[in-house]
Design brief:
The chain crosses the membrane at residues 76-96. The protein is mainly α. It is 77% helix and 0% strand. The protein contains 7 helices and no strands. It has helices at residues 6-12, 15-33, 36-41, 50-69, 74-87, 89-98, 104-130.
């Protein structure tokens, strides 16, 4: 039995999906375990309570993470991750706005989150392209 070349194994490896799933499952859990920091960055312009959006985004992160773990649903999970990362971007922008008077290290952390969305979206797109429907 021959094995695939390392380049092909890397392209089809589930490891990137597992890493992204772990991040989403961890972050999604935090929305329920410690919701106040998430409530604080929900844009006030949105209708309804901030807690609703905190819990809804937590559910979305948990569901997306779960989809990424299962080979049969991995492609759907990758697309869901792209949508999720784009959807939460306004909250990240709002965090930068709200934290303009915070200590420099907190402002820098909030600002650093914005460009970090790009590699997360690209990683999710790569998972989508390299996953097979089972």
């Amino acid at each position: 039995m021959t094995s695939s070349p390392p380049e092909l194994q890397q392209l089809t490896s589930p490891a990137p999906a597992y890493r992204l799933a772990a991040m989403l499952l961890g972050a999604g859990s935090l929305h329920f375990l410690a919701p106040k920091p998430f409530d604080a960055i929900v844009p006030a312009e949105l209708p309804g309570s901030a807690r609703f959006y905190t819990y809804a985004s937590g559910v979305a992160e948990l569901a997306t993470g779960a989809l990424l773990l299962v080979p049969r649903t991995r492609r759907l999970g990758a697309l869901a991750a792209v949508v999720l990362f784009v959807a939460v971007f306004p909250a990240n922008v709002n965090m930068v706005r709200l934290w303009r008077n915070k200590p420099l290290v907190m402002r820098a952390g909030a600002l650093a989150r914005l460009p970090l969305q790009i590699p997360m979206v690209l990683e999710a797109l790569k998972i989508y392209r390299t996953s097979r429907d089972s």
